[in-house]
Every structure is written in structure tokens, then in C-alpha cells.
Amino acid sequence: CAQSGGGSADGPKDPSEIIVGFAQVGAESGWRTANTKDIQAAFEDAGIELKFSDAQQKQENQIQAIRSYIQQGVDVIAFSPVIESGWDAVLKEAKDAEIPVVLTDRAIDSTDDSLYVSFLGSDFIEEGKKAGEWLVEEYSSSTEPVNIIQLEGTTGAAPALDRAEGFADVIAADDKFQVVESQTGDFTRAGGKQVTEALLKSNPDVDVIYAHNDDMGLGAIEAIEAAGMVPGTDIKIITVDAVKDGMQALADGKINFIVECSPLLGNQLVEIVEKVVAGEDVEKRIITEETTFTQEQAVEALPDRKY
Ligand code: GZL
Description:
By secondary structure, the protein is an alpha/beta fold. The protein is 40% helix and 19% strand. Helix 1 crosses helix 9. The protein is built from ten helices and twelve strands. The structure holds beta-D-galactofuranose. Beta-D-galactofuranose is lined by residues 28-29, 31-32, 105-106, 121-122, 159, 187, 213, 215, 240-241, 261.
């Protein structure tokens, strides 16, 4: 008589017997690469088999990977939904196959929260608010208009929607802040560069660029320099993530403020998997801890950054 959660009559499964299927978004940014490395290392250390797939930022590839994990009869499926919507059908198939699903990093917009056992990741609205709060403080003594270009993450992705929402909520406090343009750079450096090049032509007097991740901010730096301007001085830049390349640009004065978004979810994901397989309760929502960095703090923190 197997215990619930895959254990046998003589106790929970040994880690070496557990198989997890992980459907990753892609490899679009430094954050994603660090997230993948950390998850793979954590499962390696735990002695748990991790089947891994890279969806190249395409939802249909993630759905295909989840279906293949269902067919293989893995013990747990975990994934970071590239966009919020369109998951109910495939997650219903996982539920019908009695395979628990863990959301990591990004959320889904399904109203049926029985489709997953836990969601582990950052509070992106809070991250957007932190970015807005720094900007309000930075311009607290100015009454002049502050023209902002927003580089959005992947269209429909939870971090893009929520970082925009949190930021807008805070800067609404003063109508001197105006988001004059807002376009997606798809969380990539190339995307950030292309969009910034185009928008600088139509908005040469922009004061601030708010990029939903470091990689798009780094692309914006290239575009600003190519236009003969000084990033961090002529145009202030706020980004989210705090990966090494972003922190280096912050320390060099090319970015002005970074809101951290931790990619180090591996150990917490292993813990959730072990509890689920042992039939123990897990928290429905686990919010990762993270901070913010000014230029001075980046200089201090850089030597110890793990990613
Ligand atoms: C946030 C994560 C985002 C990062 C980007 O948790 O989903 O996706 O901010 C990454 O760098 O591409």
C-alpha cells in the first residue's frame, strides 16, 4: 500500500529513486542562465534525477516538454511559465496523471490553483515598486517633467506585467513622471539595444530608462553610447535582476539603480520536491528574498556575487 506522494509501505522514496521533469523558459538572459545552473546543481547535489528542457522562450515547446514528462511518468514536474496564460489544459493532464506540478520563478493566471502544489519565486510587483520608489526619491527636489522609456520584458510574462504595474503605481504619485514610450525588448540584450536605438530617435530628450531586466538595460547602454550620450549621466537607467554584468555596469556608473531578483531557486525547489514526494504539505506561495543596489553598494557587493 504505497503512501500518498509516491512513498512505499516502508517509507518515503530515496532521492535516487525520484525523477523530476523541469521545463525551462530558455536561455534569454544572464538571469536565466544562472537560474538553470543553480537548479541543475541543486538536484545534482541532492542525488535526484532532473530531466531538463529549454523551450527557447516558446510556450508550445514548454507544453510539449510537460506532456513528455507526463508520458514518462516523472514524480514531479516543475517549470517557469514563459507567459501567464494558456496552461490549464496541459496542467489538467498532469493533474489527471496524478503528477504534482511546481511553478518556479513565474506565475500563471489560471483561476484553478489546484493545478499546482506550490509557486516559488519573486514578488515582481514589489520589484517594480522598488524601482519606482528610487526614481521618486532621485527626483524629489525637481519639478521638471521626467520623461521615461520603459523596456518591457516578454509580452504576457508575469515579471513584465507586474514590474510595469508596481512601477506605474508608485510614479503615479506625481504627474511629472511620464512614461513616454513602453515597448518589449523580450528580456534580451539585443532587444533592449534595438528598441532603445529606435526610441531615442523619436525621444531624444528622455531622462530615464526603466528596463525590466539587466540584459535589456545593457543593450540600452550600447544604444545610448552609440548615440553619443553618456549612460547613467545623460540618461539614468534602472534595471531589475542584479546579475554580474548588470552589477558591473552599476559599479561603473552606467546604470543608476538595480532591483535584485534572485535566480537561486534550486535548493528551495529540491526541498519542495522532497516534501511533495514524501506526501508532506508544502506552502502554496514561497516568495524569494532579495534586495536592491545603488552604485556604491554594487562596488562593495561585486566581489562576492555568485552569478
Ligand atoms: C524573473 C525572470 C526574468 C528575469 C529575466 O524572475 O523570469 O526572466 O528578470 C529573465 O532576466 O529573462
